[in-house]
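Work Package 3 (structural annotation) set out to generate three-dimensional models for the target panel prioritized at the project kickoff. During this period the team completed the workflow that converts sequence records into discrete structure tokens, so that structures can be stored uniformly alongside our sequence database. As a representative example, we reproduce one entry of 423 residues exactly as it appears in the project archive.
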Amino acid sequence: MVELLAPAGNFISLTSALKNGADAVYIGLKESNMRINASNFSLEDIKKASEICKEYDAKLYVCTNTIMKDNDIERLIQQLPYIKEYGADGIILSDIALIDLATQNGLEAHVSVQENTTNYYSLKSLEKLGVKRAILSRELSLKEIKNITNKLKESNSSIEVETFVHGAMCMAISGRCFLSYGLYGRSANCGDCLQPCRKEWKLSFEESSSDRVINTSECDDESFIISQSYDDTYRTNFFSPKDMALIEHIPELIESGIHSFKIEGRARSPDYVATAVKVYREAIDSYLEDPENYEYNPEWMDELMKVFNRGYDTGFYFNQPYEISEDNQSKFIKKDIAKVVNYYNKIKVAELKIWDDLSVGDEIMVQGPTTGSITHVIESMQIDGKPIETAEKGLNVAIAIDTKLRENDFVYKLIPRESNDGC
């Protein structure tokens, strides 16, 4: 049974992942993980997160995968007993010193993608050190991954392999990059990347008769790489790859022997987490229930296009990715318009305080630590018990909604990009 592993940068994302079918969730420990700009979790938060995961019979993994110096290791030595006591199942690490420390505290040791594990022999060595699982390098093809898992099976190895199946891809090998540090003094390897690769760059060059550049890719048209600017310099987003999406290849992934499918995105929004988990859960379950009659559902990709994305590619799984992405390609924008004031359980009505206009037929998104992330099309609204079609900003309105909402939940209006002049 393959595990579906979801990201959570805060409690809203955690709840969203679990409500939509995640088997496990990974979170970041403050000061020790690769998403320092996400909300992240304190030691005390881990206890609460673990309790929530147990309600859904899900596992909890804690990321401690930045570059570790002596003071970082010494801090973690003090924290690991509490991480175990508070209910975490394992830690994701990139420093081999933490393997012993994790296992001594009864925690599973999962080696991060930062270690760039690319072969069977590395996995066997890691297994001898006590590693339970390794996240394989993003640069491996599906054929190479299958070869590795076959060798592990033949040798009766117990080490598990995990791979990313959805989310952002980094221009650097397994995310080990120095561009942010070189430009701004903010290290990606310590979780503080400012993502300069996502910006638009200008490229200048001098032609030389001694140049011997050969195009070895299968793409003859290289015009997508560079475009000429008004000042005779050249622009390109070649540092910024598209996001990975393997939703169309669930059968091949499951049959390859991968133990855990990982969704990237601890710094992304709860609706992204909810949608990605829901879609992959449906696809995985559909295949496992009836492999012979499994059919890919095109609506899955439609759903993934609704949330933040930079366009989608299959990474290195089937060939070398060459497509680049300029910006968010999602079909909707979220406009912050309201908060929940109250929810009346008996009549299934929510009271909203709105600071933007709201109409019957609008699609809204509601997010909260207990609610998670849900979407709802407004079918009826009232003010003072009287039905209305449109409510103006500054009012309190009542909407009918079956899903229980909570006080202070955030409310957003989903606006199609094409109807908003591309904003």
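The domain at 332-420 is CATH 2.40.30.10 (Elongation Factor Tu (Ef-tu); domain 3).
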